[in-house]
Amino acid sequence: MARVVAGVAAAAAAGAPLAASAQTDAASATSLDREALVKRIAGTEGSYVNSRGLLLRWKNDADGTALVTRFADARFSKSHSKTAQAEWSVDAGGNYCLTVHWPAETQHWCAAVTPGDDGALHTTAPGGFAVTLK
After folding, report:
1. pTM value?
2. Residue 36 above 80 pLDDT?
């Protein structure tokens, strides 16, 4: 059975979630309720670089699924890209959640979402890594 790794990025605690109560994001004066946030995230692509310098990329499909690819490290000849099934959602608090089913473990994390000036949504993966959803 896969080991479950649960992580909520500490950096996400600094940002206010876009909750169903439509809290206002001070940086952009934009607010979204949970339903609007789900619609806005559906179809976006997510990406970040993890602590090992590996790029992770996925698409948030409208049905709540995703296929996450962790790309190979070009510095090592024996490094291979890996792909895993995943599910994404927006919890009751307005946090973006991603559950990735890697062969050796299941990784689950949730973090606050902030709209950016660039039109993308921004959140934080475990370890404080910046995630862009666009």
Report:
1. 0.74
2. yes
